[in-house]
Each structure stands twice: as structure tokens, then as C-alpha cells.
Amino acid sequence: MFIINCPYCGEREQTEFKAGGEAHIVRPKQPTELSDDEWAEYLFMRKNIKGIQFERWIHIHGCRKWFNVVRDTSNDEIKAVYKMGEKPLIK
Amino acid sequence: MKNKYSFFTLLKNAFSYHENWGKAWRDPEPKKEYEAIIIGGGGHGLATAYYLAKKHNMRNIAVVEKGWIGGGNTGRNTTIIRSNYLWDASAGLYDHALKIWEGLSQELNYNVMFSQRGVMNLAHNLQDVRDLKRRTHANRLNGIDAIYLNTDEVKKFCPIINTSPDIRYPVLGGTLQRRAGTARHDAVAWGYARGADEMGVDIIQNCEVKGIKRNGNDVEGIETTKGFIKTKKIGVVAAGHSSVIASMAGLRLPLESKPLQALVSEPVKPIIDTVVMSNAVHAYVSQSDKGELVIGAGTDDYISYSQKGSHEIVEGTLSAILELYPIFSRMRMLRQWGGYC
Ligand SMILES: Cc1cc2nc3c(=O)[nH]c(=O)nc-3n(C[C@H](O)[C@H](O)[C@H](O)COP(=O)(O)OP(=O)(O)OC[C@H]3O[C@@H](n4cnc5c(N)ncnc54)[C@H](O)[C@@H]3O)c2cc1C
Ligand SMILES: [Zn+2]
After folding, report:
1. Which candidate in B97, B186, B205, B282 could, as Cys together with B298 as Cys, close a disulfide (CB 3.0–4.6 Å)?
2. pTM (whole model) above 0.80
3. CATH code, domain carrying B282
4. Contact B254 A45 (CB under 8 A)
5. pLDDT tens figures, B274-307
6. Could B302 and A19 be called an inter-chain contact, meaning their C-beta atoms sit closer than 8 Å?
């Protein structure tokens, strides 16, 4: 369990949030033109990184807003939090 | 087999206070090159090596393991074995495996303590009831033993379950697969390791894979903490670390690794002689031969390689367990741990 700093509400327990998986996966512009392989790539293929991962979380039991988190998946340490549409401060 | 285990070897070794048993497998240094290398010395990696050697006669192969064999998820699970899965493909795969389990101790000459004590899956809502009935029919069509139990039959099969209708997750019924059960998880890894080693497979522990050398569409070998090992074929059998290893070869996989937890209680006298699973509330219980309750919990929803999960997952599981088994209310839990699946 860890503390997440919601960009709208401040620090709250992780139990108030729900994880939404890898961030910055761009939705295909022309879904009708995608091949099966391209669909599979979009829907299923993931980095599943051990280390610094960019991911989405939602404050489901709070403000109900989505935002991004940069977290080290090897020890669950959160490095940064930023709003949807913003650029992370670390690369 | 060099070191065959039998009543006579047991007797013979008793005379020297069991101090002279030979090693169950060698501890070789890696050769320069292998025909194939399996990355990951869990149950699956060791079984892969065993059957490659036995069925496909590949003897010049190695299993490389970063820690000790069976120290990953293989040594962390709640040891439940069953084959009552819904889809034809899953039923085929899991029942094939269950049939292997039924003869495994004999085949490996190693007691894997396979115990067909039955696995019961509980239904807690109308959808569960429909799903479990459908699964029972599907299992039977696939020749897999399955029966559906109503609430009274559940109570009769496992009397300590609270079947009163006014609990938060009432027991509306359940399924039972009698051929299912448990086994000793370490023994599976050790038994396969011993069998594979006997056929010449090198099992190399404390050897972490750090990189995979590629040449176009071919692989040339693996970079490890024990140096470079040449090979043209690699099998990645690293469970939650599969993506990490695949990425060394520039591959992506459709996987996410999430923490899954379990815990055991202090040992008590026999109280539950089967395995009871409640998927709806993520509460799985059985009792080990030592007497500990072995409790499986749910997964967290975020990716993590930390090998620990959230406290609230365990809390949720235990509150469900307490309601379903009020008799456990004063049990003390001894250990809790996580794996990554
Ligand atoms: C809490 C828990 C409960 C479970 N309960 C059940 C159950 O009741 N029934 C059931 O059927 N299944 C259960 N499972 C799932 C089951 O344990 C796993 O599916 C199974 O053990 C996986 O075996 P494996 O050999 O594929 O992986 P593992 O046993 O995890 O082996 C993978 C090995 O790869 C090694 N490795 C990783 N990276 C490297 C590297 N870079 N170099 C070298 N080696 C590396 C690891 O050290 C590890 O030993 C449970 C899992 C958990 C965590
Ligand atoms: Zn918020």
C-alpha cells in the first residue's frame, strides 16, 4: 500500500484509487483501417516494465478524475504525478 | 536412476542417521554452449527441461535460475490443483496436467505429496450459480469429473462453512471436482530437477540472465552473471518476469505482472479436509499436512515487481474468510507473502 498525491485532492491512501494501466497509449485514429496485428498491439501488448513506468490512475473514491503517475514498479515508489494532457517533468 | 529412493534406501540410510544421502542434483558450472537454454527454474521451467530431455531426447540443455530453483511463484502458491475449467482448450490443457499429476510421484520417484482431497468452488450470487452450472456441464462434456452441489450439500461436504442465508456473501451452491486437490509445491520443482539432472540437463542456480544477444532474427546466446553462454534456442519460463526477459531480445508481450498474495496460520489439528475456493470474494482455503491453514488472497490491480501486495487485499480476503468460517475467528496468521503472476 502506498500514498498517492492526487493532483486535484492531495495525498490520499492508494485504496481510494484504481489503476488504469500503461499511460500514453494512443488510440488509433482510424480504427476501421487497423489490421488484426495492429489491434492486438493497441489492445494487448504492454511494456510491463520493471522500473520506471508511466501509468494512469483514477481517484475512484474521491474526485473521480483520471491522471498520470510515474512509479518505480520494482519498489512501488512514486516519482511524479501529473494531469491528463500534461507532460511529465521527468523523462 | 543412480540414487533411487525406495524403502530399502530409506532403511539403509537410517543406519547412518540420514547423513549420507547423495545430492539430488549436481551443481555444474555453465558450459560454453548448449543446444537450448531455459530461463527460469520454477516448476514450469524444470518440467520443460525434463520433458525436452525425456520426450525429445535433448540432453545438451540447461536451466538457468537467478536465485534457487522453486524460489519464485512455484514456492509461493497455495498448491491447489484442478482441471475444472470452462473452455475446451483450457479443459484439455489442465486435465492433461492433472493426469500427469496422478502418476507424477511414481514417474519421478519423488513424493510430490499429491492429495486428491477435492476442490469445491462456491457460488455467492445468481450469476455465480449460472456460471458454475454451465461450467459443470462443460466439464462433463469434456470428460472431466464435476458435480454441482446445492447449499445443503456444500454444508454436508464441508461442515465448518457458514451457510446461513443472511451473511454478506451467502453460499447459494458450489461445484466439486473430487480428482482435484493439492501437492507439495517445492517437491514438484525438486522432483523435476532431479529427473532432468539425471538425464544430463545442467541446472545452474544463482545465475541471472542480464541480456540476450541477437543477430537479426536469430539469438546467439545469453549474458549472465556467470558469463556469456552460447545457444541458438531460448525458452523463457520466467512467470512475472517474462516481459523483462523478452524485452532483452527487443520483444513485447501481452502481459502485465501483478502482485498476488497468500498467508498461512499457526498449525492446528485437522479441521478442513478439502480445498474451498470462493472466486467472488477471493478467498481460498485448505489445510497443509503440518496443520496450517493455507489461504490465498486476490491480486492488486496495478503492475508491481515488488513481491508484496496491498494490505487491504489481505484484509478483504480475511473478512470474507471470517464470515464464511466463523470457527477461524481466533486463528493467528503466521506468515504472509506475495508473488507476481
Ligand atoms: C500467492 C500465489 C498463490 C498461487 N496459488 C496457486 C494455486 O493454488 N494453484 C495454482 O495452480 N497456481 C497458483 N499460483 C500460480 C503458480 O504459482 C504459478 O503459475 C507457477 O508457480 C509459475 O511457475 P513458473 O515456473 O512458470 O514460474 P516461477 O516459479 O515464478 O519461476 C520463474 C523463475 O524465473 C526466475 N527468473 C526471473 N528472472 C530471471 C532472470 N533474469 N534470470 C534467471 N532467472 C530468472 C525466477 O527467479 C523464478 O525462479 C499462485 C501464485 C501465487 C503468487
Ligand atoms: Zn482526487
Report:
1. B282
2. yes
3. 3.30.9.10
4. yes
5. 999 999 999 999 999 999 999 999 999 999 998 8
6. yes
